[in-house]
Write a structure and sequence with these properties.
six-stranded parallel β-sheet; single chain; alpha/beta; about 525 residues; nine-stranded mixed β-sheet
Amino acid sequence: MFDLLIRGARVVDGSGRPERAADIGVRAGRVVLMGDGSGAAATEHIDAKGLILTPGLIDPHSHSDWSVLANRDALSSIHQGVTTEVVGNCGVTYAPLADPNVDAARAALASFGYSGEVTWRTFGELLEVVHGSGTAQNLAWFVGHTALRNAAAHAEADLVTAMRWYLEEALEAGALGFTSGLEYGAGRFASSEELEVLARVAGARGAMYASHIRNRDADLDRAVDEFFRVVRAGEVRAQLSHLNVRHDTGAADGAWHSAVSRLERERSAGWDVLADMTPYPHGIGLATGLLPDWLIASGDEAAAEALRDPAVRASVREDADRYWRFIHRGQWERVRLAVSPATPEWEGRTFPELAQLTGRDEWSVLFDVLSENGRDIGAVQFIGELFTEDHVAEAVGHDLFLLGVDGFTSRREGPLGRRTPHPLFFHGYQHFLSHHALRAHNLSFEAAVHKMTGAVADHFGIVERGRIGPGAHADLVLWDPERLRETDTFTMPDLYATSARHVWVNGIAVVRDGKRTQARPGVRLDRNNVC
């Protein structure tokens, strides 16, 4: 007797192999039959004739730890068949926390719609808060280097010793490893030697390292070299996050191809390292990444206050050629204000629109936003037109690139709805399948599914997920192929994506006939039980 029997599906099993027809039987949250289920009894039968069954999608580079406390139902992503997310990326997590950092964390999380108290301090305590009330999706967690550094700055021990202690605590709590974001925040002040020390701690425990590297334009080669020095120092499995080059930011001709060639050589030499790519030419970023070291070094609140000074503003205008360097070249039309806790009424507008609205130029608008946010300056985010279509297509199709959105799960109402009026959040995962695979043919459908399921599970050590077969956890998606092919994923859906007709997490339906159920069957995927 099965709990669920899916009959006659076109099964794309997550391995990269061609689809085949099969029935799938599920019992106690696991796949127990893949073959012929004729005549079998089941509590629930699904006629899947003409539909495509895949494993639940796994995002290798998610920031849903920022929004999950306000969106436990994972509405934007669960409707796209995403059943597992790897979170804690780019060095930014909301644990560990020292007491002086709590108010900033509370304000940042409130900007995503979380109205509760910040009761945790350790990484393990954060995981208990998140998973204690349930989530729709499974979550596998990294701890962020920026969080380690900020917490350690208030410890009695020296900085690196305290960071090691906080990392050990996070790994003991189940973190997959640690991530860094080296273009902004506290990460930009970290030395290679500091990262190497932490990598040795991670490597000794069989944990991973993932990095938003220090530069992706004129100094891309040096940034990639630093990444591999850290990997070698810790002898760690690693992820080179969103390895891409922003358009018109000074990268040398062939810089991206050189970086990819380095990745290929390191793989051939035996290092277990992959990269990932986003679905659109658009992406999110942190506004403070534009600011010079001499300003940010004084701390967030002091930097925000300094930006009220016209002389400081004049100096920053001349010293902001970094990170999204096309802004320094005057290409403000490529940038929208995505998140600003102090000025939510401006969210979603381009900077030229804000300049027209306020009667000020774009730099003045930016400085006004940053200064108004005060100690929450680090929460201010952009969404921008970053890459060319050809660059995205080439990276998406490359064998060593996993496919992730580099966003966070959202919803259509409330603070999250106001700050995510972009298909990246509501069609981004499906865009890989609908646009890149089925329409543009940048890769096969089976390859796209593999790079969003089995390949991710293999690399991050997420066992018994990412593939369909006997013994696997029943994270499953039943797709309507016509909707997949025909949906315009460059636009927002009417409400949520509709191509994933049925979605199961651990054998429990979270989407049925295109509608969200009330179930929250997601689990916490600790390193201690996934690797």
